[in-house]
UniProtKB/TrEMBL annotation:
SUPFAM superfamilies: OMPA-like (SSF56925). Belongs to the OmpW/AlkL family. It comes from the Bacteria. Pfam families: OmpW. It comes from Acetobacter musti. This is Outer membrane beta-barrel protein.
Length: 266
């Protein structure tokens, strides 16, 4: 009985010692924590953003900007400088010498001069323009019983007012047609001498029709091409009555006027 008790006590002591050793081993060798996952992530690097370009709001004289109006329309005012060709047709002539009709025809020279035009748009389609130009022409009577007679020269100032209808407002290319009237004054009249010692030319006028187009080049600059047909008769007198060579002539000038130029919109 005593031996069995001692065996049990020894077994208990051995078990306790084993438990204590295991506890010490756990305390002396703690389990190391797992390494933390890396916090770095591979990502593309964004390119630096440049500051937006700002404009001062000023648009140059020869620039087309976002504020530039395309084409022509209501309220626009233009000034145009053109090269003008004046081509008299001399369709019908009558000449009298001392009151008696004689054969022959009047011939007027052609001329090229600068022209200034002012134009205003009442609506997108309807405009009015005034042309100002003066050209010098020489006049002769051909095929008369006296042969060719150099009559003289004169400057003509034919202000013409035209109402035009524009077919494509607010477009770069804008064709038009128009109708108007011309009143012509002759000034700086000079007789040729010889048979003609004195020369007078009366004021005249008549209707006119035109067609042309405007084309926007850049900014407020436009190119213009225009053809006008004017209808007018010239009345001229050479020398004095009773001088022995009083000459009177009527001529249907009916000039065709061709112009091409640059215009600016204000």
């Amino acid at each position: 009985m005593i031996r069995k008790s001692r065996s049990l006590l020894a077994a208990a002591l051995l078990a306790g010692s084993a438990l204590c050793g295991a506890a010490k081993a756990q305390t002396a060798s703690p389990v190391a924590p797992a390494p933390a996952a890396s916090a770095y992530v591979n990502a593309p690097v964004a390119a630096p953003v440049s500051a937006p370009v700002t404009h001062s709001g000023h648009c140059g004289l020869f620039e087309t900007c976002s504020s530039t109006k395309i084409g022509l329309g209501k309220g626009d005012f233009l000034i145009r400088l053109s090269a003008l060709g004046v081509l008299p047709e001399d369709r019908d002539s009558k000449i009298w010498l001392n009151g008696a009709a004689i054969p022959g025809r009047v011939k007027t020279t052609r001329q090229v001069m600068p022209e200034l035009t002012f134009e205003y748009f009442f609506t997108d389609n309807l405009s009015i323009d005034l042309i100002a130009a003066s050209t010098r022409h020489e006049v002769a009577a051909e095929g008369t019983p006296l042969g060719k007679i150099d009559v003289g020269s004169a400057w003509v100032l034919p202000p013409t007012v035209t109402f035009a209808w524009h077919f494509r407002p607010h477009k770069r290319f804008n064709p038009y047609v128009g109708v108007g009237g011309t009143l012509a004054w002759f000034h700086n009249v000079s007789p040729a001498g010889g048979v003609v010692q004195k020369l007078n030319v009366g004021v005249t006028g008549g209707p006119s029709f035109n067609a042309g187009f405007d084309y926007q080049l850049v900014g407020n600059w436009f190119f213009n091409f225009d053809v006008k047909q004017m209808f007018m008769r010239m009345h001229a007198w050479a020398n004095d009555r009773g001088s022995g060579a009083f000459i009177k002539a009527h001529d249907s000038l009916d000039p065709t006027v061709v112009g091409a130029g640059i215009e600016y919109r204000f």
